[in-house]
Amino acid sequence: MAILELKDIHKSFQDNVVLDGINLSVNKGDIVGIVGPSGTGKSTLLRSINLLERPEQGEIRFEDITLNLPLKGKERKSVTALRKRIGMVFQKFYLFEHKTALQNVMEGLITVQKKPKKETEQIALDALEKVGLKAWKNHYPKHMSGGQQPRVAIARTLAMKPDIILLDEPTSALDPELVTEVLTTIKAIAEQGYTMLLVSHEMDFVSKISNRVLFLDGGKIIEDGTPEEVFRHPKSDRAKEFFDKMNKLKEPEFFI
To answer: Quick one: how many helices (H) and strands (E) in the chain?
Structure first.
């Protein structure tokens, strides 16, 4: 059963068409990997789902919430309701530098969900424990490694108990040795049954964690299938060309 449906989503930035008639249905428990060349609308697609970007046309359905685009003033309450149920982990994490890891995770629970402080603290501690950072609860972001900061951002999202988690290239700003640390955390969360949409250039990881993969190019979904179908047997020439280039990059340049 679909938990999220997008119908005919269009988004442009001036004359640049970024999303060109996107249709997508996501079932509860799906782990959807979103791949493709840079600049083809992957991040914009995620940001349009929770209306951080406002598409000019289309429809978003999330369980009992329906939003027709462009939005009208009376639908603002529905946008707020949607965002409360969809969590997002950004590329830059956006942690508060003047707050500890625990305080960062508690922030949304207090300001958005209006939970009492005692309850909030326990929820935040549980979320930090899930990402292996409970012992770092009193550390500030500047005292944490590049691999720990995105894990705090993930814990902050988990604490809100979202129905869907959107992850926008959570490892793109990390050194290679820290990438595995974060990907291991994401894998553990996926195994708990969350519905997730993940934009990533980590193709091997996407192929292993996802039950479904989308390939975007030119603002359109041109491949949609299992990891085996999309990565190993793509139907479109554009996807074949892209994956061929990715595979060549893995090959050693020199042999000794």
So the answer is: 9, 10
**Contact criterion met (CB below 8 Å) for 218 and 49:** no
CA–CA dist 42, 216 (Å, integer): 7
CA-angle at 83, arms to 81 and 89, nearest 5°: 160
- 3-state DSSP helix/strand/coil % of the chain, to nearest 5: 40, 25, 35
Mark 200-210 as b/e (b = at least 16 C-beta within 10 Å): bebbebbbebb
pLDDT at 66: 93
Q: Which residues of 64-83 are buried (b: 16+ CB within 10 A; e: fewer)?
A: eeebebeeeeebeebbeebb
Confidence of residue 250 (pLDDT cuts 50, 70, 90): low
Judged by average pLDDT, the poorest of 14-18, 87-91, 120-124, 250-254 is 250-254
- Give the Cβ contact number of residue 114 at 10 Å: 8
Q: Which of 81, 234, 90 is nearest to 166 (CA)?
A: 90
pLDDT in tens, 67-92: 999 888 777 788 988 998 999 998 88
N-terminal to C-terminal alpha carbon distance within the chain: 54
Residue that has been written with the tokens 């049954």 in this structure: 193
Task: Pull the structure tokens for residue 133.
Answer: 């950072």
Domain ranges within the chain, ordered by starting residue: 33-53+83-250
- Domain 33-53+83-250, classified CATH 3.40.50.300, yes or no: yes
